Q: What sequence folds into this?
């Protein structure tokens, strides 16, 4: 628990289980442990359970929970730390598709310094070989110009390279 505290900088012992984060989280219904349950596991020292739950991979970091929390417990940062620790320990990932999606987002940022939705989606589909899933949704997003057809880059993406040193590919 000490390691989680130090690495995340989030004092999860401040949580008194008012459940506001749980009620405000758009994905609580599909999490094995909604946000405040996950915190309870940490408070009880049940780190392995927290690291192996699907919760840490389902969280999208939308920040809804922290905007409700009266104790300012930064749950998205906590989730990031738990994801990193789960990967470092080589624990089984409950939602491997989410890991692949994260890889594609990071690869796109590494290439261009910007995340292009179409590039990320195509990279993800190529890996998963699921070309037709979500096709209708993708076309709708294209039609509404929610997805840019042509990716743009920052002036010198190489400048970002030090940020990625030591990261897994
Ligand atoms: S909103 Fe904050 S204090 Fe309330 S249960 Fe969630 S983390 Fe704990
Ligand atoms: S940041 Fe994660 S835990 Fe918090 S509300 Fe969003 S999805 Fe839920």
A:
């Amino acid at each position: 628990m000490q390691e989680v505290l130090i690495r995340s900088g989030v004092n999860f012992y401040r949580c008194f289980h008012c459940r506001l984060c749980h009620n405000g989280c758009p994905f609580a219904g599909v999490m094995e442990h909604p946000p405040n349950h996950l915190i309870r596991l940490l408070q009880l020292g049940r780190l392995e359970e927290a690291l192996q739950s699907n919760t840490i991979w389902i969280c999208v970091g939308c920040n809804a929970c922290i905007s409700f929390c009266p104790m300012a417990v930064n749950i998205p940062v906590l989730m990031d730390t738990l994801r990193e620790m789960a990967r470092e320990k080589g624990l089984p990932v409950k939602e491997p598709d989410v890991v692949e999606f994260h890889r594609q987002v990071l690869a796109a940022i590494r290439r261009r310094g910007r995340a292009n939705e179409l590039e990320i989606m195509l990279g993800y589909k190529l890996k998963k070989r699921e070309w037709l899933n979500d096709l209708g949704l993708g076309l709708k997003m294209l039609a509404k110009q929610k997805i840019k057809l042509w990716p743009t880059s920052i002036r010198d993406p190489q400048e970002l390279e030090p940020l990625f040193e030591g990261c897994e590919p």
